[in-house]
């Protein structure tokens, strides 16, 4: 018996929809989440594919997430839109706000969307890719739970605080990156702990503030940021912009709000959109051509663009479908029984 | 005879003004530059203090920089301002645009200032600090000259591409960082080369694309970004936002424009300003208090905030003046003879 199950992308979407609606999510939430989970599985980001259904359902069962929350939009200024997720998942809030964010960016040149009070479990690249699909440049960031120590410190203050960026390309596939400002994803340390494997020294410190290669000690201590004091500065910037500036929780506050339940982190998210047509005016084609020359200077020397592996996986998945471990498939089926 | 000369900040400013006007810079340019050079010396950023007068004068003598250029402002949209530096230095352009940038940020919530066709030799922290002094949150970035290879590559594409950020604090001293996305400043490699000292392995690669500890080989090869593929992604983002988006040169184009003269890099700069009063409305005091709690969580465990050393130096310099090497002082005096 094969250890892998092959599914088409439509099957992934249908399975996700079925699980989510079965566990009480409104049709609108279920569709928004199923779409992003399908995108994650399609791009072979396995930790952001159907695996997320398990955590998604758990967070609803724990009573933290409102599965029926209807996001509400508030026009704050000509350049700023607030979307109150009302303690539902973030993805429907993003989807609800995107058209108005794009409209503001097109009229002002740049605009911000502050999503507030959302539960967050997804990568940011689907969001900045959706902004790039509108022909806009997108930036997204959010705090998470305070697992990461500042440079020179030993106690956790920051979340894994991801930063994502997308630039629209004429080919349709944007230049896009999405990275945690922590040295590594928390899930990777958890995986090492489960497998009893050592972690590299720069990933984390133990509860005494000493560098450690013991994954379990790392989970009791604090993760490190990537890139030393520079990564630490970026992590702080994200707490400020996607926390303090928009009037929502920092990673430490989000952790306190969770109160040990272990649900998806609840916090805000800041999304920026720039319209290159406004910035460039009649020089728009030259601006896009200049960006293409930059990409060519990178790929022409054999270096990869960020997300290139993801786009290659996408092509394979669209043609051949995706494969998931049978054990995971069975865990998901159990959610339907 | 002492090897160090002590000067008051007023003396630093006067000396700078005298040198700059003597070498043909307009009064407005000389004042803008002297102010920022004084700030650099005051904060003990020695490479951004009076030392810069030498390069500043050299770039004017080489005929690249227009010492009399008058920046012109163009309102692109409600959220976007363009300042054409007309091949003058960047600082007067920044100063000229700042009031309108602040006005746009206050009315739109966020705004962008694109400085174009400027020669650039200064740090970005004086600019984001000036934005924070307006009670706004500031971000600034620019390309430079293509000295830095993308992650996984061996040929230079990116500049040292600095990113700076400032958050206003009630105490008056903002939270501020300003770092190169290269592993290290190019000047540090030059200094090691002059002194015949080895450089750490992650700073650069040689012309064959191999990691090197030989500073001279590094200058013939390419610098590395900080933080591996994440730093490389940020460097690309800065080429795109502060180059392609605003219709100005990428670092490779700026290097070609210089044509081997070795003047200050000519390119554009992107500055963003956010008004927390617009984002937060009546929750403004709570938003600022939340930021202060974040800073306290960092400093309370003995970690430093970025720029803390600079602020300590500032305090000393305001009280006791600054010290510069006699040899440097003599080089500067020679510019007046």
In spatial order, strands of the major sheet of chain A run 2-3-4-10-5-6-7
Largest interface: A-B, 70 and 70 residues
Structural class of chain A: alpha+beta
Major beta sheet summary of chain A: 7 strands, mixed
Strand content of chain A: 15-25%
Q: Output the CATH class name of the largest domain in chain A.
A: Alpha Beta
The value of Rg of chain A in angstroms is: 20 Å
Task: Compute the average pLDDT of chain A.
Answer: 96
Keywords (chains A, B): Oxidoreductase
InterPro entries (chains A, B): Mal/L-sulf/L-lact_DH-like_ah, Mal/L-sulf/L-lact_DH-like_NADP, Mal/L-sulfo/L-lacto_DH-like_sf, Malate/L-lactate_DH-like
Protein name (chains A, B): Oxidoreductase
Family (chains A, B): Belongs to the LDH2/MDH2 oxidoreductase family.
Outline the structure in words.
2 copies of one chain form a homodimer. By secondary structure, chain A is an alpha+beta fold. The first copy, chain A, has 2 domains: 4-61 and 308-334, Hypothetical Oxidoreductase Yiak, Chain: A, domain 1 (Orthogonal Bundle); 72-182 and 225-282, Ribosomal Protein S8, Chain: A, domain 1, CATH 3.30.1370.60. The first copy, chain A, has helices spanning 9-22, 27-42, 52-61, 90-108, 125-132, 186-195, 215-220, 228-244, 251-258, 276-280, 284-299, 308-320, 326-334, and strands spanning 4-7, 72-77, 80-89, 110-119, 137-141, 162-167, 175-180, 204-205, 222-223, 266-274, 322-325. In chain A, the strands form 3 sheets. A 7-stranded mixed β-sheet of chain A has the order 2-3-4-10-5-6-7, sandwiched between helices. In chain A, strands 1-11 form a two-stranded antiparallel sheet. A two-stranded antiparallel sheet of chain A has the order 8-9. In chain A, β3, α4 (90-108) and β4 form a beta-alpha-beta unit. At the A-B interface, β4, β7, α8, α10 and α11 of A face β4, β7, α8, α10 and α11 of B. Chains A, B: It is an enzyme of class 1 (oxidoreductase). Chains A, B: GO terms for molecular function: ureidoglycolate dehydrogenase activity. Chains A, B: Its EC number is 1.1.1.-, 1.1.1.154.
């Amino acid at each position: 018996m094969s250890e892998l199950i092959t599914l088409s992308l439509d099957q992934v979407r249908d399975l996700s929809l079925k699980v989510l609606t079965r566990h009480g999510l409104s049709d609108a939430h279920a569709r928004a989440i199923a779409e992003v989970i399908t995108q994650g599985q399609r791009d072979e980001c396995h930790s952001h594919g159907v695996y997320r259904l398990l955590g998604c359902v758990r967070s609803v069962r724990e009573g933290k997430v409102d599965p029926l929350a209807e996001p509400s939009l508030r026009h704050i200024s000509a350049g700023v839109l607030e979307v109150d997720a009302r303690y539902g998942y973030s993805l429907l809030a993003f989807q609800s706000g995107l058209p108005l964010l794009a409209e503001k960016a097109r009229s002002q040149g740049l605009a911000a969307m502050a999503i507030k009070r959302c539960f967050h479990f997804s990568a940011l690249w689907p969001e900045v890719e959706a902004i790039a699909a509108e022909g806009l440049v997108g930036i997204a960031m959010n705090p998470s739970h305070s697992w990461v120590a500042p440079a020179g410190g030993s106690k956790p203050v920051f979340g894994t605080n991801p930063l994502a960026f997308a630039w629209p390309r004429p080919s349709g596939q944007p230049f896009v990156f999405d990275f945690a400002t922590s040295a590594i994803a928390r899930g990777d340390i958890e995986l090492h702990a489960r497998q009893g494997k050592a972690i590299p020294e720069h990933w984390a410190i133990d509860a005494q503030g000493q560098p450690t290669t013991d994954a379990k000690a790392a989970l009791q201590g604090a993760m490190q940021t990537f890139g030393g004091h520079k990564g630490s500065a970026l992590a702080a910037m994200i707490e400020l912009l996607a926390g303090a500036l928009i009037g929502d929780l920092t990673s430490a506050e989000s952790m306190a709000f969770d109160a040990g339940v272990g649900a998806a982190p609840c916090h805000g998210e800041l999304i920026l959109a720039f319209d290159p047509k406004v910035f460039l005016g009649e020089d728009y084609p030259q601006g896009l051509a200049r960006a293409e020359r930059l990409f060519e200077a990178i790929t022409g020397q054999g270096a990869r663009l960020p997300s290139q592996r993801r786009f290659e996986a996408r092509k394979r998945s669209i043609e051949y479908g995706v494969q998931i471990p049978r054990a995971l498939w069975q865990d998901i089926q159990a959610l339907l029984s």
